[in-house]
């Protein structure tokens, strides 16, 4: 297996396990907060919510909705009922080598945050805000899972010395990573709306003296004036409500032959991704993972002449013709 194929498998396998552990943790929350016990008595939705003594009822409702989404709880016209549920955790032996260890402690922290978020969405122990909790996000974005997909983007995008690169929702780690490969004649523009994450990114690129430009703005507001060879959107789309508009602007900004690389936990590819969404939803801006079909549909709907390459379950490369 070549390095590119290996990276694709690493990313898909680790997302799959992030999802399966999320399913188990959701079930654990159902037991821990007495949800299953109460639902066994066939309560109405409002009876269930009022019987569980947590202050943050909107999050409790979201938890119940996700348990419904997984098929553990069912809503009938008058009551909630329990469905039998079984879940198979698969560890094919050829995947052991692909498992990355360092996202586990990060997810352990995120699972714990649910208890505090059920007290209050603004509880200081909930560390999912891009600005307030930039250090936690920076730890997360520095893990080997995130490094793996950056290397994959590098391989699939054709990014090289002299490339013009636009990275939307660049975060704190990608600018210094990609900035190393573009050389003196290249240009990397990272756009992000989090001043705290950009500050961390800026400190890194300045230390390495890289030709990187960082812009603090909402990606929905970009008006690219330069033409780019490569555009990057890695785990950004799930925070955007205006995906079609952003994709139009990005595709407009690409040279012909230029490539947009999207890496995400595409919801039409990963079964039970809703379980992971429950935990990611502790960040207020999270709106849900995109589907690969949706991204393609928006780009074609905007009339762009493109070719698509799908890699594994989590990568889409769009080449502008
Ligand atoms: C999960 S992080 C991914 C960061 C980076 N793409 C990476 O893969 O390392 C999502 C990033 O998108 C940024 N973001 C989310 N919505 C945004 C928006 N509407 N405009 C600009 N940045 C946004 C966040 O601040 C955060 O840095």
Automatic annotation (TrEMBL):
The enzyme's first-digit EC class, named in words, is transferase
Location of the Methyltransferase type domain:
166-260
Q: What sections of the sequence does the record tag as coiled-coil?
A: none
Q: What is its EC number?
A: 2.1.1.-
Would you kindly state one Gene Ontology biological process term found in this protein's UniProt entry?
methylation
Q: Name one GO molecular function term.
A: methyltransferase activity
User: What highest taxon heads this organism's lineage?
Assistant: Archaea
Protein name (record): Class I SAM-dependent methyltransferase
Q: What is the lineage of its organism?
A: Archaea, Methanobacteriati, Methanobacteriota, Thermococci, Thermococcales
């Amino acid at each position: 297996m070549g390095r590119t194929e290996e990276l694709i498998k690493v990313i898909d396998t680790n997302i799959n396990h992030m999802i399966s552990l999320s399913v188990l943790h959701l079930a654990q929350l159902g037991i821990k907060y007495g949800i299953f016990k109460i639902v066994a008595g066939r309560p109405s939705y409002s009876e269930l919510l009022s019987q569980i003594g947590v202050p943050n009822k909107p999050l409790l409702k979201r938890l119940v909705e996700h348990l419904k989404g997984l098929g553990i709880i069912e809503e009938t016209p008058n009551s909630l009922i329990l469905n039998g549920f079984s879940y198979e955790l698969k560890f094919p032996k050829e995947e052991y080598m692909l498992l990355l260890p360092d996202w586990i402690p990060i997810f352990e922290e995120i699972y714990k945050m649910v208890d505090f978020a059920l007290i209050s969405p603004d509880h200081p122990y909930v560390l999912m805000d891009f600005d307030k909790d930039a250090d936690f996000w920076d730890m997360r974005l520095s893990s080997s899972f995130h490094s793996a997909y950056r290397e994959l983007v590098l391989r699939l995008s054709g990014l090289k010395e002299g490339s013009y690169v636009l990275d939307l929702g660049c975060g704190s780690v990608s600018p210094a990573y990609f900035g190393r490969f573009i050389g003196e004649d290249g240009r990397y523009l990272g756009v992000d709306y989090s001043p705290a994450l950009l500050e961390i990114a800026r400190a890194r690129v300045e230390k390495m003296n890289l030709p990187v430009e960082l812009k603090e703005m909402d990606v929905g507001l970009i008006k690219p004036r330069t033409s780019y060879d490569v555009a990057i959107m890695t785990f950004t789309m799930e925070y955007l409500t205006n995906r079609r508009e952003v994709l139009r602007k990005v595709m407009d900004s690409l040279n012909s032959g230029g490539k947009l690389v999207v890496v995400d936990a595409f919801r039409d590819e990963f079964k039970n991704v809703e379980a992971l969404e429950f935990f990611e939803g502790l960040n207020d801006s999270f709106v849900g993972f995109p589907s690969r079909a949706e991204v393609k549909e928006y780009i074609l709907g905007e009339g762009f002449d493109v070719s698509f390459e799908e890699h594994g379950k989590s990568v889409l490369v769009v080449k502008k013709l």
